[in-house]
Amino acid sequence: MTVCDTPSLVYRLNCGADDFICKPIKRKYLLAKIRALLRLKSAIDERDRTIANTHQIALQREDFVRQLTHDLRNPLLAAHEVLNSLYQGNYGCSLDDFESVIARLMRNNQNLLDLVNTLLAVYEYEAGKKPKSFLRLDLAQLIAEVIEEFNPLAVAKGLMIDWQQHLTSVWVMSDRLQLRRVFVNLISNAIKFTNSGSICVSCHLSDRSQFVEVLVQDTGIGIDAEYLSDLFQPFHRGNHNCLGTGLGLYLSKQIVEAHQGSIEVTSELGKGCFIKVVLPSYVSSH
User: Which of 59, 108, 143, 257 has its Cβ near the most Cβ atoms within 10 Å?
Assistant: First the structure.
């Protein structure tokens, strides 16, 4: 606050002052000036946030391209090496000699196809262009099918999948293929990151039958607390060195939220992982 001395005001504004309130002070004028300056501060803060967000998006895009290039390059390079060796005759000349090589080549191509399909699904969900076909679905049956599919893999690692189905049928309205992708990802991850112990999967109704809760718990390596906040970010691989795209949980979250549900993960390093998926039940909408 100062006396309105024009030369002095010019000098001080040039020195960096944002504004002055001149004597004598009038209450209404003071409050109006404060509100104006607060609006200016809000606009500056919003500008700074926009700049920071733009910078963050640019960094994420750069990281996305780098990770995508890496993940696409590996199966392509492996397939190229196999084809080159076949061309040079390193695997023999008969079809029997080629059998294991062709099987390896098919696996590499399948990995590449899976990645491309996952990327396409991620794009469609982010752009709001993913076609949905919601029909009445027995979620318990779907999960049981996924467990049956992956049980041999668990047995091969000496693990047991404990399937705790509390009800004969648990109905939801969903896109079957997309929701199946979620539980394939969750159960396969539980097996991948568990070296001993078991995986427990349960499905039950909660909150007066308005929601279905699916719980997936393992006794695996767990997740360090510092990685939990970024767990659902694209290309996030956490604190492990296992192969993968880092898109599974990110896409799973997109799918679950498209079904008006939620997914959350709690974990401690060395103490396994606990995942809860909540979906509206069919009963709640009828």
Answer: 143
Nearest to 174 by CA among 127, 138, 214: 138
Question: CA angle, corner 143, sides to 212 and 166, nearest 5?
Answer: 55
Q: What are phi and psi of 215, to 5 degrees?
A: -115, 130
Average pLDDT, integer, range 193-210? 87
Kindly state the tokens that stand for 251.
């896409």
236: helix, strand or coil: coil
pTM of the complete model:
0.62
Q: Decide if 112 contacts 72 (C-beta within 8 A).
A: yes
Q: What distances in angstroms separate CA 197 from CA 27, 94, 154, 159, 221, one per listed residue?
A: 72, 44, 10, 6, 11
Q: Which candidate, 201, 185, 195, places its Cα nearest to that of 247?
A: 185
Q: How far apart are CA 170 and CA 282, in angstroms?
A: 8
